[in-house]
Structures are given as C-alpha cells and as structure tokens.
C-alpha cells in the first residue's frame, strides 16, 4: 500500500468522540452555510434532455478555467468549494490547452445517445449461411482481426491518459471514458464477427502492431491524440465505410456503418483538440508534425502489409479500387490535419510517397 | 516519441516489390493459411444475442486460458495466429490471469453493454419543478450530490490506471473495465447535473474523503486496489445508493438512484468475484490483501465526516428539528451498520471470512456499541 494515512484512525479517540457526539444528536450543521454558486439549470431543449452544455454556465462553466490549473489537484468537482486540506491525487496533465476541445461535451452526449450492443443489435442471423464465397469471408475475418487489435490498443491509449488528467477537465475525462468504451466495443464486435458461424481469427500483423505501438507510446497527450484520433481513426472510419460499401448482408452493413459512426466521434474530437492546442500553443506544431511523420511511416507499413492490402484486394475486386480507396483515405486524413492547424502535410509525408508508388505502378 | 518502427518505408525495396507484385495480381495469400482453429459459434439464446460466453470455446475461449499465457505480449487477439518473436511488444505488466480475472466477468461485461443508459434523457429533469422541497432538504441533497460527484470518478481513474497495463489476452476483463469507466463517468455526470438543477449548486468538497480516494488510486497492485475500491468503497457506496433512494426528496431523485444502483452492483460483484478468484487460485496473496484492507479500512473510518453524515441525517429525518434529527440518526446509524455487515458478507462470499476478525471495523463498532447486525455477522 503506497499511501499510509497519518493516523491509525481506528484507535483515534477523537473519531469515536465525534461519532458519539453525532449519535447523541449534537450535529454541527455548519456545512449547511457553505453553499456555492446557486444553480437551477434546465434543459434548453426539453426533448434533448439536460445536456452538459446546459449546465456549463456561470462559475460551473469551463470557459473561466485558466490554461494552467494551479488551484486543484484533488477530485473535487469543478465549481465546488475547496476547503483547506485537500490532497493532491498526482494529476500530471494540468494544462487546459493540452486536452481541451469545445466539442467534447457534445461528443460525450452523442456517444451515450447512440449506444448499441453488438450481442443484440447486430443481425447475426444474416450471416446464416455465409452469404458470399469462402475467400471473401476469410478476407473479412482477416480485416476483423486487425480491427480487434486496433480496438484493444486504442482502448489502452485512452485509459493510459484519462487517469492522469486534472478533474477540472471532467468533460474530457468523460469523453475518454466513452472512447475506452467505444474502442472496446470495436474489439468485441469484430471478434464476434470473425468467429460467428464456423469462424476463425486471422494472423497478427507486425506492421499494424508497430503502428499501434508508435501511437500508444506517444510521449505527450497532444501527440497521442493527434496520432490516434486523427491518423488511426481516419483509417478506421475509412475501413468502416468500405466494410459497409462492400457488405453482402445486413450484419456487415450494420457493423460497417456503426464502425464509421463511432470513428467519426474520435475524428471530431481530434480535429478540434489539435486545433485548440495549436491555437493556444503554436510552437507545439513542430513536435506534432515530427510525431505524425513517424506514425505515417508506420501507417504505410500497415497499408502495404499483405495481411491488410490483400484482403482488401479480394473484397474490392482488384488492386485499382484499393489504390483509389487508399488515396481517398489519405486525402481525407490530410484535409483533417490541415483543418486542425497542422498545415499541408502532403509534401513531407511518407504516405504521399507510398501513394505515388501505387499510382506509378498502376499507370 | 518513445518507439520507432523497425522500417523506414520511404526507402523500402521490399515494399516497392510487393506493391508491384500485388498490382500484377501476384498475391502472397499467406494470411489465408492462418492455421487458426475453426469452430462453430452461435448464439445459445437468440434473445440475448451473441455473447462472449457463446465464444468461450477452445483457443478462443477464456476457460482454457492458462494462468501464465506465455508468448503473447502484443495486440494479437486471443486465438489469432502470431509469432512471438515477430510481434510488436506492448510491454504489458499484468500477465498472470490471477492478476485480473474474475468469475463471471464475461457475463458482467455483457450486462454492462446491454444496460447502458443516458443521464441526459433517462432522468425526467423537468419534473423537478413539480415537487416542493424545503431549502434545508435541497441543501442537504446538494451536499450528498457533491460527495457522489467527487467520489464517482475514482472508479474511472483507478480502472483506467491499470487497464492499459493488462495483457490483451484478458480482453473480457479489459472490456469490463472500459464499461465500468463509462458507467462511472455517467454517475459523476448525473450527480453533477442533479446538484446544478436543484437550485443550490455544488457545495464543499470533503478532505477526508479525498484522502481515501488517494489511498485507492495509490494501490500497489491491481488486486489490492480492486479489493479496496470494488469491494470496500463501492460496496459502501452501493449501500448508500439504496439508502439514498429511500430518502430521496423527489421521484426524480429516486429514478437517479435506481439507475446508478444497477451499475454499482455490477462493479461490486466483479470485485467480489476477482477476490474469490484470488482466494481459489493464489491464496498466498491473502496477507498482502489483508495489509491493503487494513489501511483501506483505516482511511474509511476517517471518512466519518460531519458534512457527509449530517446531510444524510437531515435527509433521512426530513429536516433539522430535534425530533427529525433523532429520526435521521436512527436511520443513518442503521445504514452505516449495514455498510459494514454487507462488506463482511461479501468477504465471506469471496472466501475471505478470515478477514472479519482482523477488520478495523470490528473493534470500532464494539467500542461504539452500535450495529447489532455486525455482531450477528461475526
């Protein structure tokens, strides 16, 4: 046990005396006078319910927060009165501009309202009997194996930062919990997809593992966010759309659609977060660009790995559609980077060289 | 950047040759011969859908997962083909099944997935205006909501602190922890919303409680932290939720407690089943867990905070008149005794009954001469 209390409270006569005073009816009740800012917030739109934006008003709103948190390292909720004696819980991410995105509260609300459960919501019976050829099915299972790995590591990444963030940023912490939940659900849904019926998993991909490790071991939260939310989820969203577009049955259509929908939340947060971060701290652009250079290199390894590109070739009907799919995905990713304030990354990116290689070979 | 991949793909002849081959239609297709097990998986109960329990077979299942899954350290899902020396090592720190596993964890995870709710829309917030509350009742309830808002996020921070250190072979446990993080974020959200909808707003944070939260977060091992948080702390909170439903000033508040209770019960059950797993598979850890709970119980005793106890007394007695205070004390005293008896019952059910005579609560309750239920449990 790392934390040792300053007293053996079980043997502390003061505590027993305090309890006995209370039991005998001698209440202090002075806490009743320590009231903060009154609040009686109601839903701004009754049908939408009481949202986080509805209660983010006055002293409870995040817009009054300073960029660097110096006043609270405890779990006291933002806006509560802070008495002396609150301990530090060791939070390491204490700069608002390192985590903040105005859209986070809405994305958390969306994550809850668009909940789904793979066990019951996927029409699994649509896969009985397998509605396409064996190679097509094995290709889907191979891609599903990669998506399980991606879900597992993205869940880890969100978790590895959530507990280090100051409680003053509770909207971001909530959203990271939703990201953990969403990422774990990706792993669950595609595990079930790969195994349903006479199923099996495919092979582990070393290049995908290296991409995920590069992202997971990001040194700062903004780097981790840019790498996971912008880069990895550009790929995941594109895969979701492709999965839905090539679906031969209702189960795969549903899975692809849900995957793309969930991935879009990661992307929305990533763009807004990186943009806010760079707006407040423009000098960090170089560090993020360096990190994305390395992650894009690892992404190229993934896109070119036989266990990734070949299933796509089988599902898409040849090499050309996959080359076009990769080009579209990269274009969307670069546009998001630009929108996030990272500028035009195309010229410097390993991804561009790779796309040229594909185009050159296909001419 | 802590990790650099093994290849620079800008200047990679292998990649260029491979792309040329694929373009020509010469696919390698080695991945088609994964050599993984093929089994028949189907939903046993169509209404329940395709669950983790339905997938619990052979190399894909969790029953056959050994105590020491040697080899897998990367992102490969359990049952996939992988080459140990060729995987990207994610350096997990919790690699023993006993470190994390719990009986029934797969069904807890499925339950969590199917019972998600939304604090924004599932609580009839506008109905609060229909019910009159005195100022002192609303102040007491605001203090209780401030406390719950304060403590609920420990149950996201603590699981998050450990989740990423767990080997991916334990995916059902990791998934359960992800659902718990989401549940607790929603709990913090719903109590914050209630405090800010009632007219009073948030009140004062509680230093003694915070020390207890710090002790939870600083647990040396996941199992120690789980015993303290899931079993002791969340067990206490579960009893408080039941009690709070009983003393809720409005039906809106009762609804809140009904929703959070089902989640909290699941978390406590996981903690109990994890402890039971340890008792059955690694009983040598008992002394370590005793020491962790010695200190956990110690800081819990210090949580006897005037604001927290008194706000519950005011709510239970429905006011601050002397006779109301006396009634409140009786009800809250019973609740506190129940917290301890339920904790002891959970220890018993987890196979850790030997903890009860050593518990710091035992002499304390005897000194105070309260809690007949505790004595009965002993």
Query: How many β strands of chain A by DSSP?
Result: 0
CATH class of chain B: Mainly Alpha
Q: How many angstroms does the end-to-end distance of chain B come to? A: 56 Å
CATH homologous superfamily annotation of chain B: Ribonucleotide Reductase, subunit A
What general form of chain A does the structure show? globular
Structural class of chain B: mainly alpha
Percent helix of chain B, as a range, is 55-70%
Are there runs of chain B of 5+ residues with pLDDT below 50, and where?
A: none
Are there runs of chain A of 5+ residues with pLDDT below 50, and where? none
Shape of chain B: elongated
The biggest sheet of chain B amounts to: none
For the sheet with most strands of chain A, the description reads: none
**Strand coverage percent of chain A:** under 5%
CATH class membership of chain A: Mainly Alpha
> Count the strands of chain B?
0
Write the H/E string of chain B, N to C. Answer: HHHHHHHHHHHHHHH
What is the CATH architecture term of chain B?
Orthogonal Bundle
Number of domains of chain B: 1
What fraction, in percent, of the residue positions of chain A are helical? 55-70%
Rg from Cα of chain A = 25 Å
Structure description:
The complex is a heterodimer of chains A (363) and B (378). Chain A is mainly alpha-helical. Chain A has a single domain (103-362), classed as Ribonucleotide Reductase, subunit A (Orthogonal Bundle), CATH 1.10.620.20. Chain A has helices at 13-23, 52-55, 96-99, 104-113, 118-121, 134-162, 170-195, 206-216, 221-245, 250-280, 285-304, 306-316, 319-339, 350-362. In chain A, helix 13 runs antiparallel to helix 14 (350-362). Chain B is mainly α and 378 residues long. Chain B is built from 15 helices and no strands. The model of chain B has no long low-confidence stretch (mean pLDDT 95). In chain B, helix 6 (171-197) runs antiparallel to helix 9, helix 8 (222-247) packs antiparallel against helix 9 (251-281) and helix 11 (306-317) crosses helix 12 (322-349). At the A-B interface, helix 1, helix 4, helix 5, helix 6 and helix 7 of A face helix 1, helix 3, helix 4, helix 5 and helix 6 of B.
């Amino acid at each position: 046990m790392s934390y040792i209390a300053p007293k053996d409270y079980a043997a502390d006569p003061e505590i027993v005396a305090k309890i006995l005073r209370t039991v005998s009816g001698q209440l202090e009740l002075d806490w009743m006078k320590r009231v903060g800012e009154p609040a009686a917030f109601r839903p701004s739109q009754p049908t939408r319910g009481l949202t986080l934006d509805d209660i983010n008003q006055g002293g409870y709103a995040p817009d009054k927060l300073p960029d660097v948190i110096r006043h609270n390292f405890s779990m006291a909720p933002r806006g509560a009165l802070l008495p002396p004696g609150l301990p530090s819980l060791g939070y390491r991410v204490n700069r608002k501009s390192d985590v903040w995105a105005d859209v986070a509260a809405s994305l958390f609300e969306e994550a809850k309202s668009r909940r789904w459960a793979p066990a019951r919501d996927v029409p699994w019976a649509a896969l009985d009997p397998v509605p396409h050829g064996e190679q097509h099915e094995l290709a889907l299972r191979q891609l599903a194996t990669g998506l399980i790995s991606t879900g597992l590591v993205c869940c880890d990444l969100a978790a590895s930062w959530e507990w280090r963030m100051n409680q003053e940023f509770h909207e971001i912490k909530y959203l990271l919990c939703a990201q953990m939940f969403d990422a774990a659900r990706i792993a669950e849904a595609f595990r079930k997809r790969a195994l349903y019926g006479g199923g099996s998993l495919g092979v582990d991909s070393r290049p995908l593992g290296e991409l995920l490790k590069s992202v997971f071991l990001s040194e700062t939260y903004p780097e981790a966010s840019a790498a996971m939310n912008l880069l990895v989820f550009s790929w995941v969203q594109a895969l979701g759309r492709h999965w839905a577009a090539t679906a031969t049955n209702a189960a795969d259509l549903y899975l692809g659609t849900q995957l793309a929908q969930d991935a879009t939340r990661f992307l929305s947060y990533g763009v807004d977060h990186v943009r806010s971060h760079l707006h407040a701290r423009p000098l960090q652009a170089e560090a993020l660009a360096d990190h994305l250079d390395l992650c894009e290199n690892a992404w190229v390894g993934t896109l070119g790995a036989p266990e990734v590109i070949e299933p796509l070739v089988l599902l898409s009907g040849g090499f050309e559609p996959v080359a076009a799919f990769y080009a579209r995905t990269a274009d969307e990713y670069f546009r998001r980077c630009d929108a996030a304030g990272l500028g035009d990354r195309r010229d410097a990116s390993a991804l561009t060289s790779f796309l040229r290689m594909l185009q050159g070979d296909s001419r | 950047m802590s990790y650099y991949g093994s290849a620079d793909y800008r200047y990679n002849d292998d990649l260029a040759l491979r792309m040329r081959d694929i373009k020509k239609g010469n696919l390698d297709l080695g991945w088609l011969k994964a050599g993984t097990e093929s089994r028949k998986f189907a939903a046993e109960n169509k209404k329940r859908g395709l669950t983790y329990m339905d997938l619990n077979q052979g190399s894909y299942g969790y029953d056959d997962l050994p105590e020491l899954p040697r080899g897998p350290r990367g992102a490969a899902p359990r049952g996939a083909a992988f080459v140990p020396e060729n995987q990207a090592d994610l350096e997990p720190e919790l690699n023993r099944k006993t470190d994390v596993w719990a009986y029934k964890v797969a069904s807890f995870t499925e339950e969590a997935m199917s019972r998600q709710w939304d604090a924004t829309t599932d609580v009839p917030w506008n109905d609060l205006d229909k019910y009159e509350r005195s100022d002192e009742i609303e102040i007491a309830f605001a203090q209780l909501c401030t406390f719950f808002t304060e403590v609920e996020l420990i149950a996201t921070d603590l699981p998050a602190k450990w989740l990423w250190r767990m080997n991916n072979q334990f995916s059902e446990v990791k998934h359960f922890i992800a659902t718990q993080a989401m549940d607790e974020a929603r709990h913090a959200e719903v109590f914050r919303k209630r405090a800010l909808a009632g007219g009073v707003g948030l009140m004062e944070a509680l230093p003694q409680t915070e020390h207890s939260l710090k002790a939870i977060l600083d647990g040396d091992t996941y199992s120690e932290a789980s015993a303290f948080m899931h079993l002791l702390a969340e067990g206490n909170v579960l009893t408080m939720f039941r009690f709070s439903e009983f003393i809720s000033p409005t039906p809106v508040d009762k609804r809140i407690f009904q929703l959070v209770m089902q989640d909290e019960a699941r978390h406590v059950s996981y903690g109990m089943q994890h402890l039971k797993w340890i008792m059955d598979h690694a009983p040598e850890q008992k002394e370590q867990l005793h020491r962790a709970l010695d200190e956990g119980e110690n800081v819990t005793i210090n949580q006897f905070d005037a604001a927290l106890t008194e706000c519950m007394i005011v709510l239970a007695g429905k006011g601050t008149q002397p006779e109301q205070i006396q009634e409140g004390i009786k009800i809250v005293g019973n609740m506190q005794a129940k917290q301890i008896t339920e904790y002891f019952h959970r220890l018993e059910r987890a196979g850790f009954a030997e903890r009860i005579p050593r518990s710091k609560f035992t002499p304390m309750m005897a000194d105070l001469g309260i809690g007949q239920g505790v004595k009965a449990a002993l």
